[in-house]
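Entry details:
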Amino acid sequence: MESLTVQQLIDAGVHFGCRVSRWNPKMAPYIHGRRNSIHVIDLRETMRGLIRARNFLYHLVSDGQQILWVGTKRQIKGIIADAGERTGMPVVTERWIGGTLTNFSVIRSRLRRLEELERMEEDGTMKQYSKKAIASLRREHRKIHRNLSGIREMSGIPGAMVVVDPGREYNAVREARKMGLAVIGILDTDCDPDGVDIVIPGNDDALRSVRLLLDSLIEAVEEGAAAHRDRLAMTGAAERSGDAKDEGEVGDEPRPTRSQTISRPPKKEEGDAASPAPSEEAPAEPAATPDPVVATAADTDAEKKAPESSDGSAS
């Protein structure tokens, strides 16, 4: 983030305060002195508050939270609207509607009504009503659009509020404090700094002064949003990588062990001739060895019978 210089603040007239007769004594710590009938703001305090606000907004937006820009002065409405367009954050440039923060559920219902009226205008449903009813519906649409169109993208309670002239936007600051929001304010010497968490003392009436200070804050918000997008991209890539790894582990078939490979029989394809299974012949039994006792007895009987036969033949 590029920081501003004191010379840039002087060139934009940030150091010019209000008339001495209109000053708020609580702003004494932020006043350098007086020149004629006008107080001179201490630009060192301006730089200190600006640096604190930039760092705070950067870290807040990098965490994914929203910033609400508030400024209803006629000469700065365009700058506030431009801040909302550049950062994509909600803005309030018209009258602060009571309950915008403290009764957000009702505000959200009015935003849904705004979308309904716009849808009726687009699809031609509104033409089915009488002329008097159509005029009434269009007046309702203009009123809701004027007061709430700047916060129609606000999904919930924002993380912080940036206010130009908190003295004028007293109701907004009060609701923010009640809801626990951090308040960053650009204050002139006639404002009350109570209720503002980060005070940026400066000329809140001059167009160049307000634009310079807000441009510095917008830059911090844009860089915080870029850091948040990068973080989401890295997180998404890591999750996709983890999912792919898990799918690979589940889908891969475990490889068989060596013993399973050896003992697995070969697959038989259809159409192939059935090959005979290899016969497993039992090993031939060794020839029985005659019992020597039995054999000797048999030989003795044969010898006894032999002479008898020979004698008979002789006779």
User: Anything to note?
Assistant: The chain is about 50% helix and 10% strand.
